[in-house]
């Protein structure tokens, strides 16, 4: 069933929840409606399972990138963006990001689905925040930077769906890393001046 779940995930990723019809999901998975319901429950349950699958695949990659450079939060954020840009450039997967695609449709999702999307964004923010935590900056600054990095990640996904080139996306990521570095350097300077 994991192959069918992966195919269903691709349909939601490409089309979004609203346009992922049961016929399209059935065609992609090779399962008829009855088998689809029997295996995964209704469309909402299948969607949540696809979100979980996506989060397990890419969340593990994000976690690895963000924890690979302890004590160097800027390098951790650079590694995070490298993973994101590699996923975006991978011709084997749909353009963009399932989470970004789903977040854009949050108002049309059922509450449970919308909450799960928000929870996945929050989890990503917590991962980024943990990577930044070694920096000597005020908690509010770290919170703001973590939110900023997640916002840039989601923006990269949207821009890629709109046809932005790899060079354009890398430029955005580079500027985001510069912003993180400059903000953390400014916070460290303030600490020294106040110390």
From TrEMBL:
<keyword id="KW-0804">Transcription</keyword>
<dbReference type="InterPro" id="IPR009057">
    <property type="entry name" value="Homeodomain-like_sf"/>
</dbReference>
<keyword id="KW-0238">DNA-binding</keyword>
<dbReference type="Pfam" id="PF00440">
    <property type="entry name" value="TetR_N"/>
</dbReference>
<dbReference type="InterPro" id="IPR023772">
    <property type="entry name" value="DNA-bd_HTH_TetR-type_CS"/>
</dbReference>
<dbReference type="Pfam" id="PF16925">
    <property type="entry name" value="TetR_C_13"/>
</dbReference>
<feature type="DNA-binding region" description="H-T-H motif">
    <location>
        <begin position="21"/>
        <end position="40"/>
    </location>
</feature>
<feature type="domain" description="HTH tetR-type">
    <location>
        <begin position="1"/>
        <end position="58"/>
    </location>
</feature>
<keyword id="KW-0805">Transcription regulation</keyword>
<dbReference type="InterPro" id="IPR011075">
    <property type="entry name" value="TetR_C"/>
</dbReference>
<protein>
    <submittedName>
        <fullName>TetR/AcrR family transcriptional regulator</fullName>
    </submittedName>
</protein>
<dbReference type="InterPro" id="IPR001647">
    <property type="entry name" value="HTH_TetR"/>
</dbReference>
<dbReference type="InterPro" id="IPR036271">
    <property type="entry name" value="Tet_transcr_reg_TetR-rel_C_sf"/>
</dbReference>
